[in-house]
Amino acid sequence: MKTVIIKYNAGNVQSVMYALERLGASYLLTDDEGEIRSADKVIFPGVGEASTAMAYLRQRGLDKLIPSLKQPVLGTCVGMQLMCRHSEENDTTCMGIFEIDVRRFPANATQGTVRLKVPHTGWNSIHDLRGPLTTGLPENAYVYFVHSYAADMCEHTTATCHYVRPFSAMLHRDNFYAAQFHAEISGDAGQRILENFLTL
Amino acid sequence: MLTKRIIPCLDIKDGRTVKGTNFVNLRDAGDPVSLAAIYAQQGADELVFLDITATVDGRKTLIKLVRNVAHTINIPFTVGGGISSVADVSALLNAGADKISINSSAVRNPDLINELALEFGSQCVVVAIDTRYINGEHIVHTHGGRQPTELRTLGWAKEIESRGGGEILLTSMDTDGTKAGFALALTAQVSGDANIPVIASGGAGTMDHFVDVFTTGQADAGLAASIFHFKEIEIPVLKGYLRGKGIEMRV
Asked: Which of A58, A163, A170, B14 is the least crowded, having the fewest Cβ atoms under 10 Å away?
């Protein structure tokens, strides 16, 4: 099986590569269209700022390539956000694979007396789990988040997280899957999600 | 709900853990990779390695070690100590660290915080503050807490946030090593002012100290070293206890 990690200007992917190695999966980090198209699985990672990342994808034609892929594609963190319709981060038009918008968490929100800091950083639980990637996971499994923007709830939502408001922790539509959290450093739960993706 | 985090810290020198540890069933108690794996397995929410190596050869050893640890564990992994440039950070992130922690170098050159946030994203930039209470004021110290600076702790914490720091690791030199509890009032002040997470460090001696730091101290995470290394408190027991006290924990 050939797994490709899409190479672009959105952050460090070393932890993703190690996570795949722990699962015994071989992978290729590349931005080559032919390699991406011929892969069995495609991982679209991302850390960083949405508009810069989208500009880079457009420049390389990856914004057209990714939505046209037929094999299972997994977007994570900013990768997930770029697969949505629009991000409030620098008013960025994204790829629109998921018909939902990405909005910033408000500053100074509170829950009781607790201040809800932004970015949403740390381990939070996901619930209302649906779809093949969370097979074997308990409701309210904990995964590791670091983000200031989040996709709203929608028909594609397959896992929900609460922080300030309920948001889409995971999305699924056709062959496209996405997770807002960092599965690669989300303990055994994250490892299971990656394993489920690789065995789709 | 977002959990509070429990973070064991290991001091590293020349690729080995420095402070003694009391883990049984370990062939080599000083091996950081084995220790990291055990902590991850016990439910640590994150790991911090603090490198106190001074030599160039030692730094190369550290990179190799970071690679081995990151390859082994599946939780966030922060590396601090001796980091003073974009190149230093790049090497550590490429080896698999998820975050880096800077301290003296940020005090010396605050622009470094901006540079690192711009280059790698705020999420991986932890800025450590060593603070000591002197003549009625909280003063930032560098060089392992030995050298006082001109900076006031609360003002420096705000500056760290405004420059793009992603988290603050706040160590009270007054409570560090005492096992008499975290510096609650100061932690609450820094965390209450900050819109970024504050990791409290220094003074953990009992499980109730963690209760205090997460409630009164408003900390987002609690870091400790010796109480975990010497098994005075075991992570699964601590997390169960905190959960029983109504504090959200990943168990």
From this structure: A58
Q: Minimal Cα–Cα distance from A191 to chain B, Å?
A: 8
Domain carrying residue A78: 3-198
Size of interface A-B (CB pairs under 8 A): 88
- B88 catalytic residue (yes or no): no
Contact with chain A for residue B195, Cβ under 8 A: yes
Confirm if B74 and B36 have CB atoms less than 8 A apart.
Answer: no
Q: Which domains does chain B have, with CATH numbers?
A: 5-244 (3.20.20.70)
Mind listing the pLDDT tens digit for each residue in A128-172? 999 999 999 999 999 999 999 999 999 999 999 999 999 999 999
User: What CATH number is associated with residue A76?
Assistant: 3.40.50.880
Is the ipTM value over 0.85, yes or no? yes
Give the count of domains, chain A.
Answer: 1
With both helix axes pointing from N to C terminus, report the angle between B235-244 and B32-42 in degrees, rounded to the nearest 10. 30
DSSP H stretches of helix in chain A? 14-22, 33-37, 50-60, 62-65, 78-82, 187-198
Tracing tokens 């010396």 back to the chain, one arrives at B108
Cα separation, B101 vs B81, in Å, equals 7
- CB–CB contact A123 B167 (8 Å): no
Q: Which of B76, B167, B194 sits opposite A185 (nearest CB)?
A: B76
Reported pTM: 0.95
